[in-house]
Design brief:
By secondary structure, this protein is an all-alpha fold. It has a single domain, classed as Growth Hormone, Chain: A (Up-down Bundle), CATH 1.20.1250.20. The chain is 77% helix and 0% strand. The protein contains 19 helices and no strands. Helix 1 runs parallel beside helix 8, helix 8 packs antiparallel against helix 16 and helix 12 runs antiparallel to helix 18.
């Protein structure tokens, strides 16, 4: 059994938290800058939706490739390389640029950030056993919430006070600072190649076809795709919706955008703690992780569907907070489910594939919303249709995922001869 230094384990969690914070701030800055960018470059909603979706053009492909590399290469080195590339990709935006350069920068940034979430989870899983992973996973997911929303007022202040170009520059510098710190303190965990250290995971290799077509994998793919649809809308369109449809000032919109992230942190840690308590109490992973996570996705879908029909009051702000936060629980619990059914030697690849399938929603959702807004009589009607369509889709996929996820049955199959 590998010996685990708890101080080093939680230091790794803290660094990975910051890694995800910067990662999602890089994603969110375009949405926060949407009105300024559209005005400076003369973009339509459809073209800006294309810009938002461009981030995901190579996102899925790089996630799969780096996921397989993570089975063999040092996680520390992979994360160091990723952070350096995405920091470099932001530098051109510090000056005046045309649409092609901005588009190319987002494509490169997406390629560098595509593997971030699965690699982050893989790094953390090297320090914690299967039964202990829900809580540290929630801390990592909270880093994404901080980057996507909690720091939104600060980023918006930079945009309003200086320019959207300055905001890109600040985030580029933050990425370089993190890379230097990680070079000094980052390390791979003792459970990296120690399958025997975690007796709850089947260590024999399983054909990838069986892994990818398992009930649990397909269920996690579907549930995560649904939840990522809302992440994409949050990152690309929520600020624009609040400013153009709800008539808020950018600074006020930034505070509303911060609410889902704050709630995601509270809900993520709370539900992770509850899930871990259920698991340690003897409840099945299907219940403690699968059904619980999918219920969160269904709830998010229902709330998004009703969102545009509620007047802008305190209730609408609360609905925004829950709608764009609670569904993200599936990424944390879904990763633990994938880690549970994956042999250790294949876990990095399967986490990468899972994340890549989830983020395919990022290719579609921003463009669909942009088209619906452009073809509508006015932006308010377009956003209303877009949120209704998104809500129905997300709730339906969440229910389908809940019926599929069953890790105990899948692990039992791995121990049986393939048919």
């Amino acid at each position: 059994m590998a010996v685990i230094d708890r101080h080093k384990a939680w230091l790794t969690v803290a660094m990975v938290f910051l890694f995800m914070l910067i990662n999602f701030a890089d994603k969110a800055v375009v949405g926060l800058s949407s009105t300024a960018i559209m005005s400076e470059l003369g973009l339509t909603h459809t073209r800006f939706g294309l810009l938002g979706g461009a981030f995901f053009w190579l996102f899925a492909t790089s996630g799969v490739i780096v996921g397989f590399l993570a089975n063999r290469l040092s996680t520390k080195r992979i994360m160091l390389t990723m952070s350096a590339i995405w920091s470099l990709s932001l530098l051109p935006m510090t000056g005046r640029v045309g649409f092609p350069v901005l588009l190319g920068s987002r494509v490169l940034l997406g390629a560098a950030e595509g593997p971030a979430f699965p690699i982050s989870m893989h790094a953390v899983y090297q320090w914690f056993s299967n039964r202990e992973r829900a809580l540290p996973s929630s801390v990592v997911a909270s880093g994404a919430a901080f980057g996507a929303g909690i720091i939104a007022p600060a980023v918006t202040w930079i945009i309003v006070t200086y320019s959207w170009h300055a905001a890109f520059g600040v985030l580029s510098i933050a990425g370089f600072i993190w890379a230097m710190a990680w070079l000094l303190v980052g390390r791979d965990g003792p459970l990296r190649a120690a399958a025997a250290a975690d007796p709850t995971i089947h260590s024999a290799r399983v054909p990838y076809r069986r892994l990818l077509l398992s009930r649990t994998a397909i269920g996690v793919f579907i549930g995560g795709f649904a939840a990522y649809w809302l992440i994409a809308l949050n990152l690309v369109w929520l600020a624009n919706y609040l400013i153009k449809s709800m008539r808020l000032e950018p600074a006020s919109a930034a505070w509303v955008i911060a609410l889902p992230s704050a709630m995601q942190i509270l809900l993520g840690v709370g539900i992770a703690w509850w899930s871990q308590r259920l698991t340690l109490g003897g409840h099945s992973s299907r219940l403690a992780r699968g059904l619980l996570g999918c219920l969160c996705v269904i709830t998010a879908g229902v709330l998004v569907a009703v969102l545009p029909f509620v007047p802008f009051t305190g209730l609408k702000i609360i609905i925004i907070g829950f709608a764009f936060s609670i569904g993200n629980v599936i990424f944390m619990l879904g990763s633990t489910l994938v880690g549970e059914i994956s042999p250790v030697a294949q876990r990095g690849a399967l986490l990468g594939i899972t994340n890549s399938i989830h983020t395919l929603a990022g290719l579609i959702a921003p463009v669909v919303m942009g088209i619906l807004v452009d073809v509508a009589a006015d932006p308010s009607h377009g956003f209303r249709t877009g949120f209704l369509v998104a809500g129905v889709l997300v709730a339906t996929l969440g229910a389908l995922a809940a019926g599929l996820i069953h890790p105990e049955a899948d692990v039992s199959r791995w121990r049986s001869p393939a048919r």
